[in-house]
Amino acid sequence: MKTLRLQLRFLLPLFIAIAGAAYLGSDLLDRLTMRWFTRDLNVRGAAIASALTDTVGDALSERRPARLQALFERATKDERLVAMAVCGQDRNPLRRSPGFPAELSCREVEEIARREDPRTIVAGGPVHLGLHEITLENGQRVSVALMHDVSFADVRTQTTRRYLLAFMAALGLLVALITMVVAQLSWRGWMKGARSLLRGEGLLLPPGDGNTAPELEPLAQDLRERLRDLEDEFRRAQGMETSWSPERLRHLLQTQLRGDQVIVVSNREPYIHDRTPTGITVRRPASGLVTAVEPVMRACSGTWIAHGGGTADRENVDAQDRVAVPPGHPDYQLRRIWLTEEEERGYYYGFANEGLWPLCHVAHVRPVFRESDWLQYQAVNQRFADAVVQEARGEDPVVLVQDYHFALLPAMIRARLPRATILTFWHIPWPNPESFSICPWRREILQGMLGSTILGFHTRFHCKNFMETVDRLLEARIEPEHATITYGGAESLIESYPISIEWPTPQTVASWAPVPQCREAVLQRLQLPPQTRLGVGVDRFDYTKGILERFHAVERLLEKYPEWRGRFVFVQVAAPTRSDLEEYQSFQDRIQRVTQRINRRFGQPGYEPVMLLATHHEHEAVNELFRASDFCAVTSLHDGMNLVCKEFVAARDDERGVLILSRFAGAARELREALIVNPYHVEETADAMHRALLMPEPEQRERMASLRTTVQEHNVYRWAGLMLADAGRLRLRDRIQARVQRHGEA
Ligand code: G6P
């Protein structure tokens, strides 16, 4: 109905236009036909007059009026020629035929005949008048006045006009009909496209993927942006409503997950016991994963299964290879898995870190895939799956599988504990389908991961890449609007959960030394003059972290802005990592060489602009360094999230200090108030460092305050909370489905 009304709105003006055209057309037609007839009758009249020349001459010379009368009678037998007269040179009528009106003089005839429209009304009918001069044989010049009946012309014009109107009306109807059909079709297509957009179809896919009609693409674009905004607003509002804390997470576990057992599986353990010359020490590893998951485990209790890699780990477990942690005030159990050297080489160094790690990071290091590593990877995943089954107290525990070391684990657990809720979180980026396809065991990896109930990534972009990869490589049902993949009869939710850190409690913050004191302590320890301006970088010594590019930027800073020479020092903490791998060794050597070169170039006695501290630093030392610095540079070439930047923000309760952040780190999507750089663009990073060193305090405060609000709200309890809330929802759905099925069968 609405469409019809809309179409009428369009058709009405169309009809008016056609009627107008028909009206103007008929008027034009009148004038044209009149001209044709006039010309015709003039030619005809001239021919008749000329044909009558001799007869008129004879009749006049012999003065035999009867002859002329007979001629008139003959001539006016023509149905159109109704009357005629012969006029003398002085325009006096010499003779008239009977129908020629007595009151019509030859002069009047001449006058009318000269007009553009030589028609007039005689005896109630329309006639055409013509006056044609002829020269008789004796040289006398007379005129023949001819009166033609033109009522037939009017009849013809009327008929033509009727045809024209009928034609125009038919044309109008045809045009209207075609318009209505086309409008109806395109309206329906448009409505269908718009409705499917509103249902969210195609919105998760990138623009130009062919799913959305091109004319609707701008609308889709707007909708995508609006949805993103709404989701951010929604999540922000959720976070503000009650901020996420250990208590809230515990409450969620007890209510939505009915206090079910939580088991975490990761390769890296949260506490490492090492034997040192001074006795056994407990070390916290440099791992974003551990930093994030450990507070969650403290809140959830439960069991964490991980590789026991410390030199004194075996001496610190019970008969079931368990140790209660954190040491001193235990909250949960750490179950250690022992790996042989061969297993560690194949599964950890080989397949995970020489294969999957470079495969998933765009850092221009080639992945290496060896059959022997793959076999170890499968075997170790199976060993961890066995451990999960051993540790499970019931048949439906909540298992949190962490990272790329365990891509096969979800399906292995699912095979043994079909009712378990398996949440897999992939802490590193997921590449595009082309890149991933170079893995020889790509299908097996995807099949393994799709054993998960929920598969989490840091960003929506990684979720999209994963879905596209599955689409390319497996026969699975993908529903982008619900973010689900159904494979082998089981459904997995693919969702983004940006990971974060534990926001320091007021008690923790109170235990920190004030910022000026931290500066003093750090400068003293590093033997730097009191006024030195400090930039810091804290990373694992990994080629994905952009340390080389960062150093190049420091070099460019000193080159371009010489005022910083002697006044600025960049301190890089680089925790040794995966040093058994050649790629890492050569990278670390290279960084050492570049450091020396820059220091040779810009150093002076007692001053080295780059300080490379390639040793493990505990959290407290890193925190002090963060508080002492003017800026922190995180220039990863590719990073799932990166938690160092969030820890820097958490450390700055004084709301000073500037964060320089790579746009290729997942965190750049959240921490917009940082100075965002492309780490490959050395000039840009150098300028950002210069800007950071000169940034006025009010601007620093404004940026830092906003960053702190974001990280505080989006803390790690929220990360775990959102994931566990989704798990709770799915468990509830499964329980209801099972109940409905039981009723159905009963
Ligand atoms: C990244 C990975 C973690 C890993 C960490 C440290 O953050 O996502 O899974 O634990 O690096 O690496 P490492 O090999 O020392 O555990």
From TrEMBL:
GO molecular function term, any single one: alpha,alpha-trehalose-phosphate synthase (UDP-forming) activity
Transmembrane segment boundaries: 6-25, 163-187
DNA repair among keywords: no
Signal peptide: none
UniProt key word Hydrolase: no
Alphabetic keyword roster: Membrane, Transmembrane, Transmembrane helix
Domain of life, per lineage: Bacteria
GO BP terms in the entry: trehalose biosynthetic process
Family matches, as Pfam families: Glyco_transf_20
PANTHER family in the record: BCDNA.GH08860, TREHALOSE-6-PHOSPHATE SYNTHASE
Similarity remark: Belongs to the glycosyltransferase 20 family.
Name of this chain's protein: Trehalose-6-phosphate synthase
Lineage: Bacteria, Pseudomonadati, Pseudomonadota, Betaproteobacteria, Burkholderiales
